[in-house]
Amino acid sequence: MDPELEAFIPLFPATDLSDPVAAREELTALAVAVPPANVEGMVVEDVLVPADPPVPVRIYRPRQARGAVIWLHGGGYVMGNLDTEHPWAGRVADLSGATVISVGYRLAPEHPFPAALDDAYAVLTWASEHASELGLDPDLIAVGGHSAGAALAAGIALRARDERGPAIRFQLLHQPGLDDRQQTWSQRNFTGTPWMTRDKFAMVWRHYMGSRPVTPYAAPARAEDLSGLPPAYVATAEFDPLRDEGIEYALRLLQAGVSVELHQWPGTFHGSQAIVSADVSRRQIAELAAVLRRALA
């Protein structure tokens, strides 16, 4: 374990996902503790995207940005909102120079699959159709996120391909949770890793799916064909139950002819990039932004 990260492990809450309301309150407290992003010099506004129901988004517009990313927060489909994601969405916009459209998708278990996916896809469609009004190039729209948000990004990339929907320039997948089956080596062996464990991820899938059948749009690792998808950046954490499903998905994308950059961050755990005082966290955040900046150039 990276020693700068290890020092913070005792400070993380236990986070009982069987109580979604309490878990959301804990995430809010963690988000407040993260140093704010620099949003000076950019326009930040909240918008309701027309859909059924309307989807709240927060748009971060740096000067002269032509490219954008549909940004989807983590939180196991159960936690997170526009406010808890504010430090991260703002950082991505500030460091990449891209417009960030942060999505406040509906949360499980109150709104199980496909609610979050439908919300994310509605925002992607809206951004593509209204690109000129938003000052964007419709050919320079990426999708991305962390954890559950990264899985949503991969899911809407599959859906856009299958439905011949909006063009997606790039997928930015940070520590994605892609496989409900939990049969990889890391899922079977990392049962007590910091903050997020195998059992917590099992609870995430129960909240998200309920009794519904799992489709590739919910768990992209189940997709048989990954050809024709946008280029991707995949980042994994060494001590994370999700590690191997991210690596395997990246390899399958490569084997399907999709260009991929894969970075396995040593000494890290799921969500540890939130510890922004650590050098490895700052490097992760800077790399995410640099990759996005290159993809939207």
Sheet with most strands: strand arrangement: 1-2-4-3-5-6-7-8
Residue share in helix: 25-40%
Indicate the proportion of strand residues. Answer: 15-25%
The CATH topology corresponds to Rossmann fold
- Category by helix and strand content: alpha/beta
In one word, what is the shape?
globular
Radius of gyration: 17 Å
The number of distinct structural domains comes to 1
CATH superfamily: Alpha/Beta hydrolase fold, catalytic domain
The overall average pLDDT, rounded, is 96
N-C termini distance:
35 Å
Please mark out the parts with pLDDT under 50 across 5 or more consecutive residues, or reply none.
Answer: none
Largest sheet report? 8 strands, mixed
Quick one: CATH class?
Alpha Beta
Listing every helix as H and every strand as E from the N terminus to the C terminus, the arrangement reads HHEEEHEHEHEHHEHEH
Distinct helical segment count = 9
What is the name of the CATH architecture?
A: 3-Layer(aba) Sandwich
Q: How many beta-strand elements?
A: 8
Describe what you observe in this structure:
51% of the residues are buried. With 297 residues, the protein is α/β, with parallel strands linked by helices. The protein has an eight-stranded mixed beta sheet, sandwiched between helices. Strand 1 and strand 2 form a beta hairpin. Helix content is 35%, strand content 18%. It starts with a helix and ends with a helix. The protein has a single domain, classed as Alpha/Beta hydrolase fold, catalytic domain (Rossmann fold, 3-Layer(aba) Sandwich). The longest helix is centred in the last third of the chain and has 17 residues. The chain contains nine helices and eight strands. This is Alpha/beta hydrolase.
